[in-house]
Design a protein that fits this description.
Putative Signal transduction protein containing diguanylate cyclase/phosphodiesterase domain (GGDEF) and domain (EAL); rod-shaped; EAL_sf; 5-stranded mixed beta sheet; Alpha-Beta Plaits; EAL_dom; alpha/beta; single chain; 8-stranded mixed barrel
């Protein structure tokens, strides 16, 4: 352990004490009276400076008691100095000697304070045993050394009470500190406490000796007994100093869960000290008192051993109980953690990671629960799909698309009513379950709210998106009583809303839709059993150049003439063919027939007519589409410029494959590419610039109003001018009267297709009415 260098104030204190010691040694009353209060006051200064140093770190008041003791002792000694040395008044004729009782009272108060701080850390039975044994032994010794050898002679009751008071307080202080010191079997006593204990022991022992001298009227002031008092002040100051430089953690406010401080075997040095003292005391206390002390020590040891065993047993029981409680608590915490973890995992498994809505798994389970729940008499299923969402992903990337989905889902969550639950069932599809709704008007309110909140622009800087929903509704138990049928009906109604031509954004599943589904099923069966060569036929509609009214090509249009049902509209069977996958074989048949017909006419009449072939999105998404077209052209020995592939504007924007690669591949072959129905869909200049296309087919919806609507006229004019500026041809679809034709000629539209030149007709009629006519007119 490193040595601590003492500060100057400690050396000064020691020097002052030595001066007082020399004064009383040489029997100098004046210097003795002077140095005694100086030692006391300087000791109080040292204590105060040490306490001040620790004031912000602890709340132990022990050292304040010591400060009060030394400071009060200095005041009383100062009064003694004044009366005895300066006023030459007999001090014993004043109350000054009685004032020395107050420092003893302060020490007694300190004992009570310390006891209040530490009693919870001590075993009370052992402490009581120690107090009883040490107290009785001290009383025997005090009686043997003081009271048995003196007589109680006092001139007044006050002197008697004063003597008894300071002897009683000294007895309390001495007995308590011996108990605390000797009973601390576990706790190592700090050096500062040892010094303070030594000082208090010297003080109380000196006080008892003073009482003996006082009772025997042999006390003389400024003798070595007074140096014992100043030695006490100095020791208290030294203890306070060492406390300040070696602070001990204050544990008075902590709950002590281990063994008490007074558990364990007695300190060995105590036994080694006590035994010789008892031997030395035998001649002074007498054999009967000596025997009584031995008996008390024996009883104390036997009682203490029993108490120590009890402490250990109680400790082990409490420790076992504590371990059990700890283990039980740990198990409960683990169980609680597992429950929370399971709940979190279940929540994660039931929630969509992007939007935070319930996912498809939870949606399907919830549908089953509601169907089996007797308390839920009815509910409605709203199946929703975002319109043209794929275009956002393809144009701006999936990250932006995810933000759009997140924003829309938050609107659903914030605006849905209490009996509504929102789900994300996949991609851009959502569902809402409305439980125990009042009537259909209530559903209309919810649907209207969903459509309105979806129409507000979604801002994802630097973009602003306008999205819309298509909603299909099925009701339990009215429409169906099982999950699969409910989902199918809601999906059918949603699809009906998506393809609706009157901009109706939602449909309830009803008998009409059911009938439509039955019809669709019948068409599907007939389509699967159809013979393409016998039932299907290509009709051709002519395309004329506006500058000279010359036939330049024709569009191949598929017709189905069923042997029993008769003519079936392409609008009815094409979607079914796409859903069932028949479109692949049917599309191949169309391409083969159109190519062969174009080859036959062009070779027969030495012409370069171009046939327009409409291609399904599913055909385009086939990764081998371009290679198959290339192979057919090679196998049939057809000129690529005779073929024009028509792709609708929506397909060009929403296809799952890279349209740039498709268009580039077709252009490399030499095939012409037309964007069909241009002007009614996306009309985005960005994709026109990106794609390698040859012609824009202006939609019939625009041509119908070109003569009556100025705005429509301006749109058509803008399309033609834009196409010309980009090196693209334009062809107007659905031209039916001469006014439309004349306007388109003025606008310099390149080609015309419509009833004004001819309806779609079978190939033999087309050859007769258009090709032969063109040949004869040229001749």
């Amino acid at each position: 352990m490193s040595k601590t260098k003492l500060p100057l104030k400690i050396y000064i204190l020691i020097v002052i004490f030595l001066c007082h010691l020399l004064s009383v040694t040489y029997e100098s009353d004046l210097y003795g009276n002077i140095f005694s209060p100086i030692v006391a006051f300087y000791s109080s200064y040292v204590i105060y400076s040490s306490v001040k140093k620790r004031a912000q770190k602890e709340t132990d008041l022990t050292w304040y008691f010591l400060f009060a003791f030394t400071f009060l002792w200095g005041i009383i000694d100062t009064l003694w100095l004044i009366y005895d040395s300066f006023l030459s008044i007999d001090v014993y004729d004043t109350l000054i000697p009685s004032l020395y009782t107050f420092p003893s009272i302060i020490l007694a108060g300190l004992v009570l304070y310390v006891f209040g701080r530490v009693h919870k850390k001590w075993n009370k039975f052992q402490l009581l045993t120690d107090i009883t044994g040490i107290g009785i032994i001290l009383m025997i010794l005090i009686w043997s050394f003081i009271f048995s050898k003196t007589s109680m002679r006092y001139e007044s009751n006050f002197d008697f009470i004063n003597t008894i008071a300071y002897m009683l307080t000294d007895f309390i202080a001495l007995a308590s500190y011996i108990v605390f010191y000797s009973s601390a079997r576990k706790k190592k006593t700090p050096i500062s406490f040892n010094i303070v204990f030594l000082g208090i022991f010297i003080y109380t022992f000196t006080d008892f000796y003073y009482a003996y001298l006082d009772l025997t009227e042999t006390y003389i002031a400024n003798t070595l007994i007074d140096s014992s008092y100043t030695l006490t002040c100095m020791l208290l100051a030294l203890g306070s100093y060492f406390r300040s430089i070696r602070p001990i953690k204050d544990t008075s406010t902590q709950t002590y869960d281990g063994l008490p401080y007074n558990y364990g075997n007695s300190k060995k040095f105590q036994i080694l000290v006590i035994l010789p003292i008892l031997v030395l005391l035998y001649p002074f206390v007498g054999w009967h008192n000596f025997l009584m002390i031995l008996i008390i020590i024996g009883v104390h040891q036997l009682t203490s051993r029993y108490i120590q065993v009890s402490i250990k047993t109680d400790y082990l029981l409490k420790k076992e109980q504590h371990i059990n409680e700890y283990l039980e608590q740990a198990i409960q915490e683990k169980i609680s953690d597992l429950k929370l973890a399971n709940k979190a995992l279940e929540e994660i498994s039931n929630k969509d990671g992007l939007t935070g809505l319930y996912n498809r798994r939870y949606f399907l389970n919830n549908l089953d629960e509601l169907i089996n729940d007797a308390s839920c008499s009815k509910f409605a299923l709203l199946y929703m799909d975002m319109d043209r969402f794929k275009a956002i992903n393809d144009t701006h990337g999936h990250e932006v698309g995810d933000q759009v989905l997140y924003s829309l889902s938050k609107r659903f969550t914030n605006h849905c009513k209490e009996n509504c639950t929102v789900y994300r069932v996949g991609g851009d599809e959502f569902a809402v379950i409305v439980k125990n709704y009042e009537d259909t008007s209530y559903l209309y309110d919810i649907i209207d709210s969903l459509l309105k909140i979806s129409e507000f622009p979604i801002k994802i800087p630097p973009y602003v998106f306008n999205v819309s929903l298509s909603i299909g509704i099925s009701k339990y138990p009215k429409d169906a009583k099982d999950r699969g049928t409910l989902l199918k009906y809601a999906d059918i109604a949603m699809y009906e809303a998506k393809i609706s031509h009157n901009n109706q954004k939602y449909f309830f599943f009803d008998s009409d839709l059911s009938e439509k589904v039955q019809k669709k099923h019948s068409l599907e069966v007939m389509l699967k059993n159809s013979n393409f060569d016998k039932e299907f036929k290509l009709y051709y509609q002519p395309q004329y150049r506006t500058s000279d009214n010359k036939l330049v090509g024709m569009e191949a249009l598929l017709r189905w003439i069923h042997p029993e049902e008769g003519f079936i509209s392409p609008a009815d069977f094409i979607p079914i063919a796409e859903e069932t996958g028949i479109i692949f074989s049917l599309g191949e048949w169309v391409i083969n027939q159109a190519m062969c017909q174009a080859k036959a006419w062009n070779q027969k009449y030495n012409m370069d007519l171009q046939v327009g072939i409409n291609i399904s999105p599913l055909q385009i998404e086939n990764s081998d589409f371009v290679n198959r077209i290339r192979q057919k052209i090679h196998d049939e020995d057809i000129k690529p410029e005779w073929i024009d592939i028509e792709i609708t504007e929506g397909v060009a924007m929403s296809s799952q494959v890279s349209m740039e690669e498709i268009f580039s591949g077709l252009a490399n072959i030499g095939i012409s590419i037309s964007i069909d129905d241009f002007g009614t869909g996306y009309s985005s200049l960005s994709y026109i610039k990106r794609f390698d296309i040859d012609r824009l087919k202006i939609a019939k919806e625009l041509i119908d109003n070109i003569a009556e609507d100025k705005n429509t006229l301006l749109i058509v004019k803008a399309i033609i001018m834009m196409a010309r500026g980009m090196g693209l041809k334009t062809i107007a679809e659905g031209v039916e009267d001469s006014n439309q034709l004349e306007i388109l000629k003025v606008l310099e539209c390149d080609e015309i297709q419509g009833y004004i030149f001819g309806r779609p007709v079978p190939p033999e009629i087309f050859e007769l009415e258009h090709i032969d006519k063109t040949i004869h007119s040229s001749n």
